Amino acid sequence: MVEKSVTNHDLPGTYARIDPMDRYQDMLINAWRESCRYIDIRESLDTITRLLARRIPLRELIVADCDTQRQSVEIISSSAGLPAMRTKTELTASQMKRLIGWCKGRELMKVPAGGKAPGPLASLFTEMSPIELLIGPLVSEHQSAGLLVFMAEAGTTFSAVHQKLATVLLEPLSAALENHHRLRELIALREAAEAEKRSLLTRLGRENLSEDIVGATGGLSGVMERVSLVSRSDVQVLILGETGSGKEVIARAIHTRSLRSSGPFIRVNCGAIPPDLIDSELFGHQQGAFTGATSTRRGWFERADEGTLFLDEIGELPLAAQVRLLRVLQEGVFERVGAESSIKVNVRIIAATHRDLAMMVQAGKFREDLWYRIAVFPVLLPPLRERPEDIAALAKHFAKRAAVRFGLLPQTPTPADIATLAKYNWPGNVRELASVVDRAAILGDGRSLEITKALGFASPAQAPNSIARPLASGNSVASGRQDESLDEVMKQHIVATLHQTRGRIEGPSGAARILRINPHTLRARMRKLGIEWADFRKR
């Protein structure tokens, strides 16, 4: 039987006197090509099985993966499905250690028909016992471990030449297994990135990261024209505008429209960096450069290489840091703290501030040479009060965003809501409008937008008066005093309402309905303010 198998598969016709492996060179080259051609090992295995079946008595080719973390061996690919086969077996730590040791030895194991695979492999290949097997280890340079199993056709056996060929195939199939592991890692990373992206979009209340700028065709049309002009070049940009007017949004728009859009966009709030850490944050530091520098750290300039670095509130930088920043802008090089060699970067700077830098230059608080360097192309962002035509579109945008962020039913501002918003001066600009709409959505609890109530807290200067006025009209406990805290006034109002309802919180005549808030929210606020519900039920 063996000689017949060798004659039929190894030495047909006039090739009886030629080294059998010489005739397999083309097949081995094709096996390598197929192993490197596909990332998914199943696609490689199908083609390689067809190549081998022409030359050896092969029924099936199987790849199993050794997972050291889960302590298991699992069949991950087969050239044909075997529904009765056990696809996974759990191993003990000692069994896995012995198996990995055998794999690293790169020895081929022959299991004759009717025989039994040794050790931990016995339970995985027990269904194949009537068929002869060749089991070879797959080990990559990155220490991925697995098994390659050759199943002979029924009634045949693998010759010495077949075993030699199987041994040579271990190397390309090890590369295919490594590709398979890399594919799994990429899929896991992609799924994690997608999950993080979905979470970020939910927190931001957006449907995607490249949303259109609200007001681009309205009050911001002039700004967007300048954005289109400067985006094509690589010059430094200075965005001037009041706090909350949307300077970062404009900076991102410049980046996404530029040739650097595929590079990183890094935002640094210069006003939030402690003076003694500015150099480390901007330029990085070497391990051991100062106490607490336990490892080498890249600074913001390195992280923004080939991209855009947005220096928000640049007017807050101390003069010493301005000198070092100027050198980077002029020469494109810097040194990490504690390092001796220079690092060259290719970074575009977009700066922003709400301060009057020209006045700061005259007062000696901002370097004149740095001013000229960053203000190559200034962009003046108008405050919201100067573009009232954008309020309606912004309110609708923020209402939609609030519904996503807070898990509420989406509500659209009514014409009356828009009219109310338009009467306000918006000292906090777009950021304040976003806060008001968020507050209105929460107060409306998905049923409406309580714009009027939300505006009562719009300004710190107005908050005490706006709370006292509705209290005075609703019950007698509101004193209207300006020296009482917000929590104290709120506590008085809730206590008076509970007196009125005799402690009832829910229902048509409950305190929650009168106060127009969710009953659960009212109970939470009562606990926070130390109001005992039982005290009112006794009265």
Observed structural traits:
Rossmann fold; 3 domains; extended; 21 helices; Beta-Lactamase; six-stranded antiparallel beta sheet; 45% helix; five-stranded parallel beta sheet; Helicase, Ruva Protein, domain 3
Protein described:
There is one protein chain. By secondary structure, this protein is α/β, with parallel strands linked by helices. It has three domains: 2-184, Beta-Lactamase; 221-381, Rossmann fold, CATH 3.40.50.300; 386-537, Helicase, Ruva Protein, domain 3, CATH 1.10.8.60. It is 45% helix and 13% strand. The strands form four sheets. A six-stranded antiparallel sheet has the order 3-2-1-6-5-4. A five-stranded parallel sheet has the order 8-11-14-7-15. The protein is extended, with a radius of gyration of 36 Å. The termini are far apart. The model is unreliable at 1-19 and 459-482 (pLDDT under 50).
